[in-house]
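We modelled each protein-ligand pair independently. The example shown here corresponds to the zinc ion entry; the chain sequence is given first, followed by the ligand as SMILES.
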Amino acid sequence: MVINVIDIMQSASGEIAKEFEYNASNDLIVSLPEGEFASPVKVKAVLWMDGKNVLADISLFYTLSSACSRCLERATCEVEHNYFAKYSLCPEDGEYLYKSGKVDLTQSVNEEIVLTQPTVIYCKPDCKGLCPVCGANLNKGDCGHNIE
Ligand SMILES: [Zn+2]
Ligand SMILES: [Zn+2]
């Protein structure tokens, strides 16, 4: 996800818009068991110059798949997230380095994926989970154990 800074400088409107499909590593999914990306991460970025810095307004869209946190059936969850990043030749806290006239979005996208992913996923909002007595999936019927 590399953008040439010269393209931003030469843009008539002063900004450029870029879209990427990013095959993010499943290693980025830190808290969902057997979690994986169900499809490539969609990244949309609008970039413009602020002096020598590059400012970026970035939107992420991704779908995670993992075991349902209640019943362990397969479940998916969509995440949409918008953030702002600053790319500098001498980055300060919270900023990103760019060099050789190129901005690479990968590091900030990876960090935002880690920050925004859910810690639990449900196969449906009212998932009934597993019976604590026999382990039956209570979405598929009542096993007869009375749970208070
Ligand atoms: Zn479930
Ligand atoms: Zn039961």
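Helices lie at 5-9, 106-116.
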